[in-house]
Specification:
Bound molecules: flavin mononucleotide
Structural class: alpha/beta
Number of helices: 7
CATH topology: Rossmann fold
Number of domains: 1
Largest sheet: 6 strands, mixed
Distance between the termini: 13 Å
Helix content: 40-55%
Shape: globular
CATH class: Alpha Beta
Length: 168
Amino acid sequence: MEQKVLVAHGTANGSTQEIAETVAEVLRTTGITAEVLPARSVTELDRYEAVVVGGALYAGRWHKDARRFVRRHRGALAHRPVWFFSSGPLDSTASQRDIPPVPGVKRAMARLDARGHVTFGGCLTEGAQGRIARMILRNGKGGDFRDFAAIEDWAMGVAKELGAMTHR
Ligand SMILES: Cc1cc2nc3c(=O)[nH]c(=O)nc-3n(C[C@H](O)[C@H](O)[C@H](O)COP(=O)(O)O)c2cc1C
């Protein structure tokens, strides 16, 4: 049976969307049908068997689109396998160690009995919106710290768990 998975993302500058797209590409290599959508544009989850939600981190919280998505769809999410990822640190820490979810995401994980969470490195490059973003860039603290090999590995783990669920 076809398995359809939604990868929803909350992003301000687009780098979390690219992570979501990479996750979906990996899922597709295993025969899963994966759709990537901005979290704010999703109206219902009926046609998805499982959901991955990714949020960019801003001031210790997920981007509001990801937070609102989880709130709006909490009923449907509670009845599906759910994985979360966060994207944020503008250094190599996320590649070196496991960075736990921020408190709001941790609470959502507990409420929804989420299967897993990972924090990936973030990305902030020229053209990013906002005063603080421009300040970070001016101070030479920007860069792309996303580890696409780690993103692919994590997505493969999700695919394997999904496969194990359907072949039981
Ligand atoms: C104003 C501002 C606040 C940020 N706050 C955090 C934070 O609290 N934790 C974190 O890990 N990264 C933080 N970051 C880094 C972003 O999460 C990172 O740039 C991320 O990749 C942005 O994702 P996006 O391109 O999808 O919007 C912050 C960046 C900016 C510009």
